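Lab notebook, bench 4. The sequencing result for the construct came back, and we need a structural model before the next group meeting so we can plan mutations. Quick request posted to the team channel:

Model the 3D structure of this chain.
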Amino acid sequence: MRFSARRVGLVAGWLLTPVAAWAASFLGGWIGALIGARSARGLGGVAWLGAGSLIGAIAGVVAWVLLMRMATRMDRAPEPEEDGGADR
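Done. Here's the predicted structure in token form:
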């Protein structure tokens, strides 16, 4: 097994999954807070904040995992040989 920059990038990408979820939940919470600021009740604003954070986190993790799976599949693809044929 060779270690290449691509593999190190994949490992780092998978390890950054919680950071991506945190960032997406922060963005979703921020958008939810903007929507909730128009709410007449204080509790309604907090509910919008929580809902935005939850939806943002779920959407962020799903998107990140799909991106990382696509990158993993690309890493497993055979590299072309010098003569143009696939290395198997």
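The chain has a mean pLDDT of 84.
Will bring this to the meeting.
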